[in-house]
């Protein structure tokens, strides 16, 4: 496991054999139950959000810049699956 970077307020990102792992303290109950968040990397976040909205997906958090890195911006958007688990879309905008 290789450390990649930190982001506020206390997130730590690691590379685990090509899978990105984010560690953070729980921010409370998610959807009425504790849950891990699965992050999906996309090539174009605005396009992915538009496509999912066209299919009826509702977002808890619209795309937002979460970290300015030396060589890219990190953008994320959050939604829920059919079981009320939180999912995230992640975009490394270069």
Would you give an account of this structure?
The chain has one helix spanning 45-54; strands spanning 2-7, 11-16, 19-23, 38-41, 59-68, 73-80, 86-93. It has 94 residues and is mainly β. The protein has one domain (26-93): Roll (2,3-Dihydroxybiphenyl 1,2-Dioxygenase, domain 1). It has a four-stranded mixed beta sheet with strand order 4-7-6-5, covered by helices on one side. It has a three-stranded antiparallel beta sheet with strand order 1-2-3, with no helix packed on it. It is globular, with a radius of gyration of 14 Å. The two termini are 25 Å apart.
Query: Sheet with the most strands?
Result: 4 strands, mixed
Structural class determined from secondary elements = mainly beta
Beta strand count: 7
SS strand fraction:
over 45%
Radius of gyration: 14 Å
CATH class: Alpha Beta
> CATH H level: which superfamily?
2,3-Dihydroxybiphenyl 1,2-Dioxygenase, domain 1
The succession of helices and strands, N to C, reads EEEEHEEE
Q: What is the fold-level CATH name, i.e. the topology? A: 2,3-Dihydroxybiphenyl 1,2-Dioxygenase, domain 1
Termini separation (Å)?
25 Å
**Roughly how much helix do the residues carry, as a percent range?**
10-25%
Query: Low-confidence segments, ≥5 residues, pLDDT <50?
Result: none
């Amino acid at each position: 496991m290789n450390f990649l970077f930190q982001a506020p307020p206390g997130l730590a990102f690691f590379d685990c054999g090509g899978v990105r792992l984010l560690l953070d303290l729980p921010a409370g109950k998610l959807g009425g139950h504790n849950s891990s968040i699965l992050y999906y990397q996309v090539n174009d976040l605005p396009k992915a959000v538009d496509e999912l909205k066209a299919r009826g997906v509702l977002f808890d958090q619209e795309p937002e810049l979460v970290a300015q890195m030396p060589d890219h911006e990190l953008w994320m958007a959050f939604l829920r699956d059919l079981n009320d688990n939180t999912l995230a879309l992640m975009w490394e905008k270069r």
